[in-house]
Recover the amino acids of this structure.
């Protein structure tokens, strides 16, 4: 059995048994302060964890995860007491006893099993379904054709009130990382979620530091209050009001006016955010990659020298400064540094070198005709791709390079999945857990959620990723994941641009704003004025 203390960086842990925790049996931290603060959020689609794709901020305070990770990548336990395995395939999750949902119902192993089964059952159509795909029995609940022959995951067994045994389809050293806060499909559910699913979806009962006292009101929001019986680290404020916004640009203006205390900064405001908010601007490198995909099936893009020339002709630092106010980080690898153990500064073709780019393009036979960059309209990406198009045209002496927006995201997605984009295209991948596994498998394997972004897979890469998943120690696994990304870079199938960022702005009413690695930590915020 592999074990690790709570201070261990969470890269590739096989067993995280027993050392320190962020949730004790009697609670920890200071008492919640009087008063609350207001947070701007987008209107949620659902507030049942396994169903939600938009209600992250609310659910991350209403529910407690099994495992948490801090800004330095150190892991700690919350609802879990330990997560252990001897072979990375068969896992035992021991829960802390005495924890309760906000209605007084005990949080048990069955609470998790019921929630995971509901999320994984295809006919339910819950958005978190794919998060459970690595558990044995998932295929039976999600057949390619026909109705499922089972309703529960064979790989999830309740063997005691606080003990859950999980069997994966194959060894996966990253399983503990998948239990961190942003993987909403791994939260537990009380019985009320099944007896009154419609009502529960508007007023969820969680096991976290805050309790919902009134149901969510469409296009308005709700207020949650600190849960007095919470057995984890107590929140720093007594209440949070979530205010619904259809346009985050409006929310940004409302923070400036003091009408809301905290809001996510939309990309369209990056250039002015530092000047507007100064030290009340909070940024963190997210486990995300902004990049451009290439139609590798088109013979025009077959030559790796052409692909590298396009990348080396882009001055990422200049674009970042001019458009994003320096808030982004130019990518120098395929995996952001926020993914624990990830190496950066390994992408030679990510460095701006117009002379070398012209030389490579000439060696590749040059470029004839128009070059297009397709991106989704309406998301504030216009200036970015206009700048990239100008740089490619000027630095490579290509006669015509055009940035072409679609009407919206729906049209862009439809074209991408239909293979109708003929030039470069906007791509983004955001990992829900801070592991290189999530990014490399998501973008560069056939089963990945963003394989349509890269059009790339390779047998050597698959083998390295499989070896990393089954590695017996953290150092070996990290090396293999890095070897996999280096192998991908040998083929250079995509053009990395920037690592993603989480960026928030606040009023001076609050303090202790902490961002990353799993997004904003609302329970750590204090009211000071």
């Amino acid at each position: 059995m592999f074990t690790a203390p709570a201070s261990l960086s969470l890269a590739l842990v096989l067993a995280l048994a027993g050392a320190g925790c962020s949730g004790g049996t009697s609670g920890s931290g200071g008492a919640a302060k009087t008063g609350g603060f207001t947070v701007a959020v987008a209107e949620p689609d659902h507030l049942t964890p396994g169903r939600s794709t938009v209600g992250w901020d609310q659910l991350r305070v209403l529910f407690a995860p099994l495992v948490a990770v801090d800004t330095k990548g150190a892991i700690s336990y919350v609802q879990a007491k330990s997560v252990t395995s001897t072979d990375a395939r068969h896992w035992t999750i021991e829960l802390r006893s005495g924890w309760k949902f906000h209605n007084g119902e005990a949080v048990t192993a069955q609470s998790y099993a019921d929630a995971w089964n509901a999320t994984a059952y295809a006919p339910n159509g819950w958005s978190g379904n794919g998060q459970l795909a690595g558990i044995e029995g998932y295929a039976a609940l999600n057949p390619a054709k026909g109705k499922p022959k089972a309703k529960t995951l064979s790989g999830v067994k309740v063997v005691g009130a606080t003990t859950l045994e999980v069997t994966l389809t194959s060894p996966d050293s990253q399983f503990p990382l998948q239990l961190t806060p942003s993987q909403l499909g791994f939260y537990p559910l009380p019985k009320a979620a099944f007896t009154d699913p419609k009502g529960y979806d508007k007023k969820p009962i969680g096991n976290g530091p805050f309790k919902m006292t009134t149901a969510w009101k469409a296009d308005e929001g709700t207020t949650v209050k600190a849960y007095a019986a919470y057995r984890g680290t107590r929140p720093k404020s007594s209440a949070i009001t979530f205010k619904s916004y259809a346009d985050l640009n409006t929310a940004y203006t409302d923070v400036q006016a003091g009408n809301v205390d905290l809001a996510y900064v939309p990309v369209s405001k990056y250039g002015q955010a530092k000047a507007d908010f100064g030290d009340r601007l909070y940024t963190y490198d997210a486990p995300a990659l902004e990049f451009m995909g290439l139609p590798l099936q088109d013979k025009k893009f077959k030559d790796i020298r052409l692909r590298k020339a396009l990348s080396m002709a882009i001055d990422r630092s200049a674009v970042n400064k001019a458009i994003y106010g320096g808030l982004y980080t130019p990518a120098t690898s395929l995996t952001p540094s926020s993914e624990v153990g990830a190496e950066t500064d390994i992408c030679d073709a990510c460095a701006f070198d117009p002379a070398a780019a012209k030389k490579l393009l000439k060696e590749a036979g040059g470029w004839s005709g128009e070059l297009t960059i397709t991106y989704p309209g309406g998301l504030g990406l216009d200036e970015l791709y206009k700048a990239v198009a100008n740089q490619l045209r000027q630095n490579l002496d290509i006669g015509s390079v055009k940035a072409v927006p679609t009407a919206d995201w729906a049209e862009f997605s439809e074209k991408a999945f239909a293979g109708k984009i003929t030039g470069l295209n906007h791509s983004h991948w955001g990992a829900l857990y801070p592991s290189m596994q999530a990014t490399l498998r998501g973008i560069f394997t056939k089963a990945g959620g963003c394989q349509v972004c890269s059009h790339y897979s390779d047998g050597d890469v698959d083998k390295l990723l499989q070896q990393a998943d089954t590695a017996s120690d953290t150092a070996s696994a990290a090396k293999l994941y890095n070897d996999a990304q280096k192998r991908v870079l040998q083929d250079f199938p995509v053009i990395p641009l920037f690592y993603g960022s989480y960026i928030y702005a606040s009023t001076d009413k609050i303090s202790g704003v902490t961002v990353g690695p799993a997004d904003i930590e609302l329970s750590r915020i204090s009211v000071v004025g």
